[in-house]
UniProtKB/TrEMBL annotation:
GO molecular function: isomerase activity; metal ion binding
Domain Mycothiol-dependent maleylpyruvate isomerase metal-binding: 13-100
Protein name: Maleylpyruvate isomerase family mycothiol-dependent enzyme
Ranges in coiled-coil conformation: none
Alphabetical list of Pfam families matching this protein: MDMPI_N (PF11716)
Length: 199
């Protein structure tokens, strides 16, 4: 599925705006609700979403050195420290002020930036019972995923091809077709939900 860079950029902006709108209506205590990211509450996830807007290359490198060059350890420390230092309102303001921020992950381009926001958006919206990103937007994320992403998240589809019922996208090459929504496919392929628990 080929998608123009301008289309992906508009989807990135739309997803950040959508998340900001949902977070604006959160009761204060819901910022402390657990997320799908192990050990992170809503506030840590939002802090992580805003990390690219707050950090500079030299700061990232210094943080990686302190974390023994483990990006996951560095990201965890950053999210926890930022969530402790900023209120929910301040985190929301950071997101709102950076809806059109041009950040792209190294080697990931626009598709990587959209994936970052959509996946971590689900980490928050699923436990809170809030709406997910539109199926078409989720499908753009799925279309950019492949064996490398499945390996990163430790997911084995075991000969299955997951096919969306609400978008024109599928993941996997196996002979057994499993139909589910695009959102459910994304939760499975990112290790958020076991395949046997998907609807």
């Amino acid at each position: 599925m080929g998608t123009a860079s301008t289309d992906l950029t508009s989807e990135i902006h739309a997803e950040r705006e959508r998340l900001a709108g949902l977070l604006a209506d959160l009761a204060p205590e819901r910022w402390d609700a657990p997320s799908l990211c192990d050990g992170w509450r809503t506030r840590e996830v939002v802090a992580h979403i805003t990390m690219p807007f707050r950090t500079r290359p030299l700061g990232v490198m210094a943080g990686l050195v302190r974390a023994g060059f483990s990006f996951n350890r560095y990201a965890d420390r950053d999210a926890r420290a930022t969530a402790a230092a900023l209120s929910g309102a301040e985190l929301l303001d950071l997101l709102r002020r950076n809806i059109d921020h041009p950040w792209r992950p190294p080697g990931g381009g626009e598709a990587g930036a959209l994936s970052h926001d959509v996946i971590h958006g689900l980490d928050v919206t699923e436990p809170l019972g809030l709406p997910a990103a539109p199926a078409g937007r989720v499908a753009l994320v799925l279309a950019s995923s492949g064996p490398r992403q499945l390996k990163y998240f430790g997911v084995d589809l075991d000969g299955r091809r997951l096919t969306a019922t609400d978008a024109d996208v599928s993941v996997g090459e196996g002979p057994k077709v499993v139909e589910m929504t695009a959102k459910e496919i994304l939760l499975v392929v990112t290790g958020r939900r076991p395949l046997n628990q998907a609807d």
